[in-house]
Design goal:
Order of helices and strands: EHEHHEEHHEHEEHEHHE
Bound molecules: 6-phosphogluconic acid
CATH class: Alpha Beta
CATH topology: Rossmann fold
Radius of gyration: 16 Å
Distance between the termini: 23 Å
Number of strands: 9
Number of domains: 1
């Protein structure tokens, strides 16, 4: 990680969700056809549910926001492991026009074929972005116990990929031990803002290692031409007294 990270600390997980919702709203209000790249895992669920709550549902311009996914497990939409299934259940099915939801069809074939198909979706969407605009207005990310982001695990070919936007990942370092489909660092970096979400004291140690500059995927992820922000709750903040 080069340079001091931009860290924002909220009192608790609810505060992280509220602050993330506000940052998402601010970002999508800046452009006529906004693009948000969602993260998987468990941390963002509270944010996604908040977006579907009456107050936030009324504030978000759903007709002009498009939703994408940073990585997916190679399972069906109905599988409890599905990141897209979680996001659909939490808010997308209730709030977003179906034509604006562009998730990864993980069960439609081998991971690398799925990845190539999703890259076409992203490339096509980018043709509609104003010239010079990054692909995404906001990229949400979590951080795994081994410092992975999306499904880019340490010392992996997927992490080292510099030209493809989306790749198949045959082996996951951490649970769930299923193949994945993941956006690559250059694709995730094509963003106005990259926003990491981390809550709970279980994140404290890996964040300490990332912020100390250890060579970990999360330390290499940043918005190429925008803001990279770490939004933590106090329990996850490695700088706070244990
Ligand atoms: C995934 C995620 C992954 C996640 C981290 C953190 O598919 O698992 O995209 O990158 O963000 O593993 O997961 P938690 O939020 O559950 O801690």
């Amino acid at each position: 990680m080069t340079g001091a990270p931009h860290i924002i600390v909220a009192p608790d997980a609810a505060g992280v969700a509220a602050a993330a919702a506000q940052r998402l709203l601010d970002r999508v209000m800046e452009t006529p056809a906004a693009a948000v790249c969602l993260t998987g895992g468990s941390t963002p669920k509270q944010l996604y549910q908040l977006l579907a709550s009456p107050t936030w549902r009324a504030r978000i311009p759903w007709q002009r926001v498009h939703w994408f996914l940073g990585d997916e497990r190679a399972v069906g939409d109905e599988d409890p492991l599905s990141n897209g299934g979680m996001a659909r259940a939490a808010f997308l099915d209730a709030c977003a026009p179906p034509a604006n939801v562009h998730l990864i069809e993980a069960a439609s074939g081998p991971p690398d074929d799925v990845a190539r198909a999703y890259q076409i979706v992203l490339e096509e969407f980018k043709t509609h972005r104003r010239s010079g605009m990054p692909l995404f207005d906001l990229v949400l990310l979590g951080v795994g116990p081994d410092g992975h982001v999306a499904s880019l695990f340490p010392n992996s070919a997927a992490l080292a990929e510099k030209s493809r936007w989306v790749v198949g990942v045959d082996h996951a370092n951490v649970a769930p031990f299923v193949p994945r489909i993941s956006l690559t660092l250059p694709c995730l970096a094509d963003a106005c803002e990259m926003l990491f979400l981390a809550t709970g004291n279980g994140k404290r140690d890996i964040l300490r290692r990332v912020f100390a500059g250890e060579d970990l995927p999360a330390g290499h992820a940043r918005a190429a031409g925008g803001d990279t922000v770490w939004l933590l709750d106090q329990a996850a903040d490695p700088r706070a007294a244990p």
